[in-house]
Amino acid sequence: MTFPYITDVANAVLGTQWHLPLPTFGLLVAAAILSAALVARREVLRQESLGSLARATHTIVLDLAGVAAIAGIVGARVFYIFDHSSEFSADPLAMIFSRGGFSIYGGICFGAVAGISFLKVRGIPIAPMLDAVAPAMMLGYGIGRIGCQLAGDGDWGIPANMALKPDWLPDWLWTSNTTCSASISLRPR
């Protein structure tokens, strides 16, 4: 079972029939960005206290996260379009403005370049800052991947054999029953 909308989770747990157009993936990406920014800020504060970073560097962390997030989302779409150029040629506007289709590689590349550029403009040393934000980036990536799984975008591999599933185990824990409609393009085509 997949949960493309946050109310799908509530409906599965509570047995309700609510529908609000709040996408699970989008909300978890927002949560990933926010939690990563907060963790990065704490680590930058710690690095400041150790003398690895200049005082008051922590004041730019939320701006850095915003710049990297926006560039990352744009980059994720750009790489997805490059990966699906024939579909893009057929209908460019639909591909640009669809809700699905992002590539983590584009997000990382564009986000990193934008973040490093932001740090250079602000005159902040790159290596110590990257050292400080690396754990937060991993946290953000992990939360975002949970969003992919819940939304049904992380269902790669061979189809699950439901005959092998123990009766006591819920279907949603054994497999996703949908195909990847808004694929996160991590596998080679």
Radius of gyration: 19 Å
Helix content percent band: 55-70%
Based on Cα principal axes, name the global outline: globular
Number of DSSP helical runs: 8
Structural class by sheet pairing and helices: mainly alpha
Count of extended strands: 0
Q: Could you state the oligomeric state of the chains shown? A: single chain
For the biggest sheet, the summary is: none
What do the pLDDT scores average to? Answer: 88
Topology as a string of helices (H) and strands (E): HHHHHHHH
Unreliable runs: 178-189
Description:
This protein has 189 residues and is mostly helical. 63% of the residues lie in helices and 0% in strands. It is built from 8 helices and no strands. It has helices at residues 6-14, 24-50, 61-83, 85-90, 92-97, 104-122, 126-151, 171-174. Helix 2 packs across helix 3 (61-83), helix 2 (24-50) packs antiparallel against helix 7 (126-151) and helix 3 packs antiparallel against helix 6 (104-122). It is globular and about 60 Å long. The chain starts with 5 loop residues before the first helix and ends in a 15-residue tail after the last helix. The model is unreliable at 178-189 (pLDDT under 50).
Show the helix and strand layout.
Blueprint: H1 6-14, H2 24-50, H3 61-83, H4 85-90, H5 92-97, H6 104-122, H7 126-151, H8 171-174
Helix pairs in contact: 2-3, 2-7, 3-6
What's this, in brief?
The protein is an all-alpha fold and 189 residues long.
Entry keywords:
single chain; 8 helices; mainly alpha; globular; 189 residues; disordered C terminus
